[in-house]
Amino acid sequence: MPAPRTLRTPAELAGAGLIAPGRVAELEAVAARYAVAITPAVAEAAARSEGVARQFVPAAGELVQTPDERADPIGDAAFSPVEGVVHRYRDRVLLKANHACAVYCRFCFRREMVGPDGVRPLSAAQLDAAMAYIAGDPQIWEVIVTGGDPLILSPRRLGDLMRRLAAIEHVRIVRFHTRVPAADPARITPALVEALRAPGNTTWVGLHANHPDELTPAAAAACARIVDAGIPMVSQTVLLKGVNDDAATLEALMRRFVELRIKPYYLHHPDLAPGTGHFRGGLAEGQALMRALRGTVSGLCQPTYVLDIPGGHGKSPVGPCYVAEGQVEDPNGGRHDYPPR
Q: Catalytic one among 54, 88, 106, 280?
């Protein structure tokens, strides 16, 4: 029997039982507009969990665009001095070496750029220019390798990238953002993990996961291979309607991250990407969920709730405030004078 392979069409999704056969024609138009890819690991999890399926199985609502949605929702283009580099903050840059992913999230804020019909990977000359830009600015302390998903690259290409970054004296931190440990855990081989390290650099890995059902035993083992190699991990999660917009699911997810030695980092309010309105709730709902977390789980389990302000204005914390008019509110809603009277 052939090995399972990544599902890429509505017909294949129907064959795997992830959609009803009668939905194939309806979703062909969505698949023609936005890339579809569901790995065997994700397909198995999605078959058991609506919270996983909703993130990756296309929906007709993706073709409905609201007036406030935009192709570049956080304004990356205005901060791209050379192809593949986004330099919004003084001490760090994004390096987008490729624009393909192991799986395609239905809420992706770069959905206009990623996928087989999206932006092409950096050519050798473009990568040279990106490296020259990074080398030319001594204030750049951290390079965040993203895309696309950088961990779909081969260990050889990742190792070459790390060696080039390690040769730039002022670059001390290299951070990879990825879904691969959960979406395609078999790809996290000892050779790939070793390729993420280079003398002179500290490597971090940011895992993107939105529901505890994504963190299967195979995903846990993949994350352990990374952490056991001395590479610390943080998490990124998007607050998604119908996926994790309830306190119990968020609590379970954040606890699971900590159990796997992954520090919860950011909880993102969804960006205004085209066709993603069915995933977005309001900021007040997110703030209420953060209040619920604050009152029930360890400080280790607390992400920072953030909004990437449309138009390129940067990322800001938007969690609830507990201080007002000389009083501090406790996690149970009680108010207390500070300083005490």
A: 88
What confidence tens digit (pLDDT) does each residue in 178-187 have? 999 999 999 9
Q: Report CA dihedral (77, 80, 84, 87) to the nearest 10 degrees.
A: -120
The answer to whether residue 110 is catalytic is yes
User: Please, which residues bridge with residue 336 across strands?
Assistant: 328
Which of 54, 105, 213, 223 does the annotation list as catalytic? 105
Catalytic residue among 34, 101, 301, 305: 101
Instruction: Report the predicted TM-score, pTM, of the whole model to 2 decimal places.
Output: 0.95
Q: Is 276 a residue whose pLDDT tops 70? A: yes
- Burial zone of 104 (CB within 10 Å; 0-12 exposed, 13-18 middle, 19+ buried): buried
Half-sphere exposure of 46 (CA within 13 A, CB side): 23
Burial annotation 272-281 (CB, 10 A radius, 16+ → b, else e): bbbbbbbbbb
pLDDT tens for each residue of 51-82 = 999 999 999 999 999 999 999 999 999 999 99
| Whether 43 contacts 14, CB under 8 Å | no
Give catalytic status of residue 315 as yes or no: yes
